Amino acid sequence: MSDPLTLAGFRADLAEFLHQKPDEVDLAENPLYAGLDSLRIVTLAERWRATGVEVSFIELAERTSFARWWQLLSERGAGASRGDA
Fold first, then answer.
1. What are the tens digits of pLDDT across the range 27-70?
2. Which pTM was predicted?
3. Sign of the Cα pseudo-torsion (57, 31, 84, 50, in order)
4. Residues of 34-63 as b/e, b for ≥16 C-beta within 10 angstroms?
5. Nearest Cα to 45, choosing from 63, 19, 30, 27?
6. Which of helix, strand or coil describes residue 6?
7. CA angle 53–58–63, rounded 5-degree value
8. CB atoms within 10 A of CB 3
Protein backbone atom coordinates (compact mmCIF):
# COMPACT_ATOMS: atom_id res chain seq x y z
CA MET A 1 0.00 0.00 0.00
CA SER A 2 1.27 3.49 -0.79
CA ASP A 3 1.00 6.64 1.31
CA PRO A 4 -2.47 7.71 2.50
CA LEU A 5 -4.47 9.87 0.13
CA THR A 6 -4.43 13.57 0.97
CA LEU A 7 -6.34 16.48 -0.54
CA ALA A 8 -3.10 17.62 -2.19
CA GLY A 9 -2.58 14.15 -3.64
CA PHE A 10 -6.20 13.99 -4.78
CA ARG A 11 -5.86 17.34 -6.56
CA ALA A 12 -2.55 16.26 -8.12
CA ASP A 13 -4.12 13.04 -9.43
CA LEU A 14 -7.01 14.97 -10.97
CA ALA A 15 -4.69 17.60 -12.43
CA GLU A 16 -2.66 14.91 -14.16
CA PHE A 17 -5.73 13.60 -15.98
CA LEU A 18 -7.16 17.06 -16.67
CA HIS A 19 -3.83 18.49 -17.93
CA GLN A 20 -3.93 21.23 -15.31
CA LYS A 21 -1.93 22.32 -12.31
CA PRO A 22 -3.29 21.02 -8.98
CA ASP A 23 -4.33 24.50 -7.85
CA GLU A 24 -6.31 24.95 -11.09
CA VAL A 25 -8.62 22.00 -10.36
CA ASP A 26 -12.09 23.34 -9.55
CA LEU A 27 -13.50 21.00 -6.90
CA ALA A 28 -17.03 22.24 -7.63
CA GLU A 29 -16.79 21.03 -11.23
CA ASN A 30 -18.62 17.97 -12.54
CA PRO A 31 -16.01 15.30 -13.41
CA LEU A 32 -17.67 14.45 -16.73
CA TYR A 33 -17.95 18.09 -17.78
CA ALA A 34 -14.30 18.55 -16.81
CA GLY A 35 -13.35 15.94 -19.40
CA LEU A 36 -12.96 12.69 -17.49
CA ASP A 37 -14.28 9.62 -19.26
CA SER A 38 -15.09 6.25 -17.75
CA LEU A 39 -11.62 4.79 -18.38
CA ARG A 40 -9.94 7.66 -16.56
CA ILE A 41 -12.39 7.38 -13.65
CA VAL A 42 -11.66 3.64 -13.38
CA THR A 43 -7.93 4.38 -13.44
CA LEU A 44 -8.30 6.98 -10.69
CA ALA A 45 -10.38 4.58 -8.57
CA GLU A 46 -7.66 1.94 -8.91
CA ARG A 47 -4.98 4.46 -7.95
CA TRP A 48 -6.93 5.50 -4.87
CA ARG A 49 -7.62 1.89 -3.88
CA ALA A 50 -3.84 1.41 -3.89
CA THR A 51 -3.68 4.02 -1.11
CA GLY A 52 -6.09 1.95 0.98
CA VAL A 53 -9.32 3.78 0.09
CA GLU A 54 -11.95 1.30 -1.10
CA VAL A 55 -13.96 3.06 -3.78
CA SER A 56 -15.64 1.87 -6.96
CA PHE A 57 -16.23 3.39 -10.36
CA ILE A 58 -19.99 3.39 -9.68
CA GLU A 59 -19.58 5.30 -6.42
CA LEU A 60 -17.54 7.97 -8.18
CA ALA A 61 -19.81 8.11 -11.24
CA GLU A 62 -22.84 8.74 -9.01
CA ARG A 63 -21.27 11.88 -7.53
CA THR A 64 -21.53 15.10 -9.50
CA SER A 65 -18.51 17.08 -8.33
CA PHE A 66 -14.90 16.57 -7.43
CA ALA A 67 -15.76 17.91 -3.97
CA ARG A 68 -18.24 15.05 -3.50
CA TRP A 69 -15.55 12.61 -4.66
CA TRP A 70 -13.17 14.02 -2.05
CA GLN A 71 -15.86 13.79 0.65
CA LEU A 72 -16.32 10.08 -0.11
CA LEU A 73 -12.60 9.36 -0.37
CA SER A 74 -11.71 11.23 2.81
CA GLU A 75 -14.46 9.45 4.76
CA ARG A 76 -13.26 6.09 3.47
CA GLY A 77 -9.64 7.00 4.11
CA ALA A 78 -10.40 7.94 7.71
CA GLY A 79 -12.13 4.58 8.17
CA ALA A 80 -9.18 2.74 6.66
CA SER A 81 -6.74 4.52 8.97
CA ARG A 82 -8.81 3.41 11.98
CA GLY A 83 -8.98 -0.13 10.65
CA ASP A 84 -12.74 0.12 9.89
CA ALA A 85 -12.41 -0.67 6.19
1. 999 999 999 999 999 999 999 999 999 999 999 999 999 999 99
2. 0.88
3. positive
4. eebeeeebeebbebbeebbbebeeeebbee
5. 63
6. coil
7. 85
8. 9
